[in-house]
Write a structure and sequence with these properties.
- This protein has about 150 residues and is α+β, with helices and mostly antiparallel strands.
- The protein has a single domain, classed as Aldehyde Oxidoreductase, domain 3.
- It is about 30% helix and about 40% strand.
- It contains 4 helices and 9 strands.
- Strands 3, 4, 6, 8 and 9 form a 5-stranded antiparallel sheet that branches. Strands 1-5-7-2 form a 4-stranded mixed sheet, with helices on both faces.
- The C terminus is likely disordered.
Amino acid sequence: MSSAVREASTSSSPLSVDRLLKLVSDPMVGGIALFIGVVRNRDEGAGVVSLDYTEHPSAAEVLARCARQAAERYDIVSLAVEHRIGHLVVGDLAVVVAVGAVHRAEALQACAYLIDTLKAEVPIWKEQLFESGAAQWVGLPADAEAGATPA
């Protein structure tokens, strides 16, 4: 990992914002940007009860690559990202991104870039369970959406 990347991982345990903030704290840091993804109770007008995140074996490696790219692209001092895996309920933290930079602009830009990039590239899939009892997979690769299940 880039020396700026202090953490890039997935976890089946609850995420800690405080732990990631401590990881990006540094005397050179003048601004810290933080993104916290939370499980919400509605999606596309339907009530959500819970969701399950499933990761491909390459997820941690891809997440680390995305973190390195963000750190290098925006000249970041420190960066930490962690994505939750497994069963989550409404209100649980799903992902935390913390970015420390000399100035706020770079921290904010890198934080936005990293969350957008990891959502697009990291092979983590979400199955939502709705109040109606129906379930829906989100973020599956095109071949899985055609009938295959995630690995």
